[in-house]
Structure formats: C-alpha cells, structure tokens
Fold this protein.
Amino acid sequence: MDVDEVAMLRSTVTELTARSSGTQLTAELDAFGWLEILTAAPDVTVPAVFEGQGLNGSWSATLHDVLAASLCVDIDTAVLIPFPSSDTAATRDRSTITVNGLLLGARPGHQRVLASTTEADGTMKLVTVSATDLDIEPIHGLDSEVSARAVRGIVPLVNAVTDDHDTSRQWERAVADGRWAVSHQLVGVMTAMQDLAISHALERKQFNRTIGSFQAVRHRLAETYVALEAARAAAEATGPAGHGDIATFDVTLASALAKLVAARSVIKVTAHCQQVLAGIGFTSEHPFQRFMKRAMILERILGDSRQLSKFVGVQIASSGTAPRVIEL
C-alpha cells in the first residue's frame, strides 16, 4: 500500500471502530474487506484495526481472525486460547482429550473447535473437535463487552482430529501474531487514557490554576507519555510472522517483547492517569473506567507481564544474546 492508501485505511477503520462494537463492528469490518486485507497486508491492517479498537473501546472478532489466519483454519473453526494460568487449551491421555480453554470474539455458528495440547514427549499438537461435544458458556467478568466464553469438555480420542506433525512452531507463530495485535490494541487503550487525563488536567482548576500547571501532575503525565511511546515503538518494531522488517531476530521473541513492554506500560499508564483524574476516574459516568477495565483484560491475554518476563528471560539466557529490537 502507498501512503495515501494507508491513510485512507486508518481513517476508515477509526470511523468504524468509533461508531460500532461487537457483532456489528465485525460485520462492518467484513464489508470493508477486513479478512482479505488481513491476508494481503497484515503489517498495515492489524495496527490500524487494533489501535482503533483500543482508542475507541470497541471489540470484535478480529483477534480470533488473526489467530485463525495464522493457523490457516477456515471460518467455521473456532480457535481456543489457554486460560491465563495454563500453557495449552487441552490435555491428552491415552483415550480422551480434555478441553479447557478460552474463546475470545469467535464468530457465531462455528462447527469445530481447535485447541493446542502437549503430548507426553513434550511435542505440541493441534487437535480439532466438534463444537457439539463441548460445553460453551459465556463469562460475565470485569469487562462485559468482551465476548469471552469458557469451553470445556472431555472428548473421546476417536472423535477428535489430531495433527500428526509437531505443530509447536505453527502454534507459536499464531500466538506471536496474537500478541503483536494485542500490543497495538493496548497502545490504543493507553492513548485514550492519556487523552482523558490531559483533558482533565487542562480543564480542572484548583487555587485558580489548572491542575496541569502543577509539577506533580506534569511528572505523572510525562511518565505516562514515556511508557506509551515505549509500547508504541516496541509494537511498531515487531510484525506478523513472515512479514515486516524482523529478520534479525525470532518473531516469537519479538512479539513477546512487544506484549511485555505494552503490558508493563499499561499498568503504569493506568495508575498515573487515575491519579491525575482522581475520584472522577472511578465513577461509572466517566469513560476512564471502561478503558481501565479493558486494559486489565488485555494485559492478561496471551501472557501477562509476569509470564512474559519469565519467557523472555529464558529465551535470552538460552540463546546467550539479546536481540536489538529497535535501531537507534
């Protein structure tokens, strides 16, 4: 895409994510050609769509679509991700497969469910089972707008389709693409929180002065800006598997670093913006609480800051080198 096409894409996506959410946003993105552009130009489309969703507090099936596209599964198959406390969405023994995973924003009407599982010898496999063999229940959590469902069930091995190859690398690349997408959505969420805090600092007055003129408030906003730009730089330096200027280091480690920086940054940004907004930020009438809840959910998806810190540390220690993510 040339510069004008990218600008038009971002403008259109921003408008769509601002006016719609949920199934309606998914339908409008489909009409715009989201699935086709995701395949043709993910390096442009994913940042635009996910930052737009983060900035406007919207949600859709896009994260699920990113995972499905990376795994090359059809639209009738729903991709499970592990719960935050687990490494896989299923376990396998000699005769059964126990599914216990999380479904985020999957399209309605899916007939099959794909989950990752680890074999006894440590190899990763992808297993597909019929959706009718599983219990799928909505999760009513902190953020009600996120279409999250728990998928559980014990399925006889003969009723499942298991990939005979070691698919660990394929699954790692799908998770890498998902983490990269979530990193961009976190950047959008942090941008929205920063904008709300800055507006409040410029409007709220104490002692006949705007609170934005106080040094303590300026310090918090400055640290917010640094954390946000660090997350933005890390996300932009990464890219989807097989795309982007990331040939010098492993895409799995790159996406984990991007998500780690974003996860740590959003914790800091949320705290500083909340301090600037003070009590009004806790009220249900103020939009900040929506972004704070969304930030808490996104921070845990596909690895939180603690899990990713351990993962990145192990990867760097085992390789003996630290990759240069950004050329300064």
Remarks:
- Confidence is low (pLDDT under 50) at residues 242-249.
- The longest helix spans residues 168-203.
